[in-house]
């Protein structure tokens, strides 16, 4: 297996560490200090190398996953000194057993699940990944592929002692075609850095997430991440043109085509998009980048009721047409949380609901005219009670921060129960109202926000601490309710560890059966990201 060559860009390496951006807020508030906060990583005692989770020191506040959830370790081998030596021969100096570094990689961003892996591997090339997986396959060692570790469903950290296979050093651009806008890069490139890279060449990445400063493109593809540009550019299933994937036994599957059209046989890459590392490890991605818009405007609006929010969406689609690039929604509780925890300033008068409308087009004058027309109509008809528009980059970013940083604000509010569901827009907010009544005072906040333009609600419930009673009041209620609306129990975050058992609410038994068969075909020993995505097969 030959490692993919990166001759033209070999000197140009992305930093794997998050690039925190600082922005000056045109609204006078201090925003965007940290796009996605660092963990307050804690020191812990050295880990005993051999053995199971019981040998790992407890970190206050982050329970071992196996203590909180009923899950049994599968009979995989335990990493031995010989395995470590074999890894060291494959990737010299990049076999990590340092407890502090392991601690970072074992805990998810939410600090809600925690594995007890004893080894973290940092390959640089596809060939290295292939050699590692071949060894793991021979030795029956389970592997947890990890990108930026920004996932919200516990998919990116081990459940027990799975080997963590990090893509952090696989961070090179392989090629960029400045006529077609096709980018080919390694899986560990950080999304925001890719966006800067293609922006300098007149394009943008087709996806944008709050976690952009840390998340890896490979992880984005593995989870089929949605995000803020979905409304305009659609799913990664459409914009990813090709993938290179290493299969469980180490075989390299080279489907890294850059063709827009290719109807030769089954589209195998689609199997790996959204498979959360359970079918193979994505090592390189070919992706179609849309042209960089010349003008980006953001309107932030206050709305008196949810019926009005829906009417604004209709009006917006009709009047803005092809320049509409985002339609995001947040309720008053979200606004309160970003003000309280992040000290951001509300840019419009207080309202029950807020909408962020973004336009992206080729002519600033034309777009401004269209947006003005829409705002006049929305304000004049009372659909919107107040609004502000950002046309310069600083104000655009400041307005986006109010929406993008809700997750971060929620993380300061206590334990967060997260639901990421797809619904018909007419029912978008009903569940939030129902839950407030159902849960009563045992919660701190029940909030609703999300990508209304895509029918994707982020329903989050915060409480002082994790509570089994609260969980029982939420689940399966939320999932049953969603299924009754023919919705999806995971719109864009995937199923990971936390949601794997609810797959049946959104997929029929025949589909699940086929998924188990595919898993057995591609990973017969079940070594890749075990305990994730699919429920245990009875
Ligand atoms: O934290 C969440 O529930 C949502 C995170 C992300 O998908 C967003 O849209 O901000
Ligand atoms: Zn989202």
TrEMBL record:
Chain segments annotated as transmembrane: none
GO BP of this protein: malate metabolic process
Keywords (A to Z) from UniProt: FAD, Flavoprotein, Metal-binding, Mitochondrion, Oxidoreductase, Transit peptide, Zinc
Catalytic class of the enzyme: oxidoreductase
Cofactor requirements of the protein: FAD
Domain of life of the organism encoding this protein: Eukaryota
Record-stated family: Belongs to the FAD-binding oxidoreductase/transferase type 4 family.
Function comment: Catalyzes the oxidation of D-2-hydroxyglutarate (D-2-HG) to alpha-ketoglutarate. Also catalyzes the oxidation of other D-2-hydroxyacids, such as D-malate (D-MAL) and D-lactate (D-LAC). Exhibits high activities towards D-2-HG and D-MAL but a very weak activity towards D-LAC.
Protein name: D-2-hydroxyglutarate dehydrogenase, mitochondrial
Organism: Chinchilla lanigera (Long-tailed chinchilla)
């Amino acid at each position: 297996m030959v490692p993919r060559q990166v001759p033209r860009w070999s000197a140009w390496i992305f930093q794997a560490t998050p690039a925190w951006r600082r922005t000056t807020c045109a609204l006078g508030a201090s925003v965007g200090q940290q796009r996605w906060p660092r963990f307050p990583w804690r020191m812990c005692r050295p880990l005993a190398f051999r053995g199971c989770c019981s040998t790992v020191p407890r970190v206050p506040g982050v329970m071992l996953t196996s203590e909180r959830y009923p899950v049994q370790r599968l009979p995989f081998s335990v990493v031995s000194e010989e395995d470590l030596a074999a890894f060291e021969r494959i990737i010299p100096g990049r076999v990590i057993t340092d407890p502090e570094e392991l601690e970072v990689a074992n805990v998810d961003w939410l600090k809600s699940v925690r594995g007890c892996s004893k080894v973290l591997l940092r390959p640089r090339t596809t060939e290295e990944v292939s050699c590692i997986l071949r060894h793991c396959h021979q030795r029956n060692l389970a592997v947890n592929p990890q990108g930026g570790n920004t996932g919200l469903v516990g998919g990116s950290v081990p459940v027990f002692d799975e080997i963590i296979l990090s893509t952090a050093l696989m961070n090179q651009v392989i090629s960029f075609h400045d006529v077609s806008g096709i980018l080919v890069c390694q899986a560990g490139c950080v999304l925001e850095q890719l966006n800067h890279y293609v922006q300098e060449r007149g394009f943008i990445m087709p996806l944008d997430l709050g976690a952009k400063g840390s998340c890896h493109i490979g992880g984005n593809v593995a989870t089929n991440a949605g995000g803020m540009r979905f409304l305009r550019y659609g799913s990664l299933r459409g914009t990813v043109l090709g993938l290179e994937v290493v299969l469980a036994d180490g075989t390299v599957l080279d489907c890294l085509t850059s063709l827009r059209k290719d109807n030769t046989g089954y589209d195998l890459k689609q199997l790996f998009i959204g498979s959360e590392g359970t079918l193979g490890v994505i090592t390189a991605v070919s992706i179609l980048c849309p042209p960089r818009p010349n003008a980006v405007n953001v309107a932030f609006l206050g709305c008196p009721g949810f019926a009005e929010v829906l009417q604004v969406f209709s009006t917006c689609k009709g009047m803005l047409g092809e320049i509409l690039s985002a339609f995001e929604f947040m309720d008053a509780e979200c606004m309160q949380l970003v003000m309280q925890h992040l000290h951001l300033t509300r840019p419009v008068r207080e309202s029950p609901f807020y909408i962020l409308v973004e336009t992206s087009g080729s002519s600033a004058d034309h777009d401004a005219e269209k947006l003005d027309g829409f705002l006049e109509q929305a304000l004049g008809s009372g659909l919107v009670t107040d609004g502000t528009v950002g046309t310069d980059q600083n104000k655009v970013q400041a307005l986006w921060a109010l929406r993008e940083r809700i997750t971060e604000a929620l993380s300061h509010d206590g334990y967060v129960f997260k639901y990421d569901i797809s619904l018909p827009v007419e029912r978008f907010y009903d569940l939030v109202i129902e839950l407030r009544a159902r849960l009563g005072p045992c919660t701190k906040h029940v909030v609703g926000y999300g990508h209304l333009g895509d029918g994707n609600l982020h329903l989050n419930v915060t409480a002082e601490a994790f509570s089994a009673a609260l969980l029982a009041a939420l689940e399966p209620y939320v999932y049953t309710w969603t299924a009754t609306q023919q919705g999806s129990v995971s719109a864009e975050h995937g199923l990971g560890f936390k949601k794997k058992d609810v797959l049946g609410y959104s997929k029929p038994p025949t589909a699940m059966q086929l998924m188990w068969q595919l898993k057995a075909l591609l990973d017969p020993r079940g070594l890749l990201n075990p305990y994730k995505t699919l429920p245990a097969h009875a």
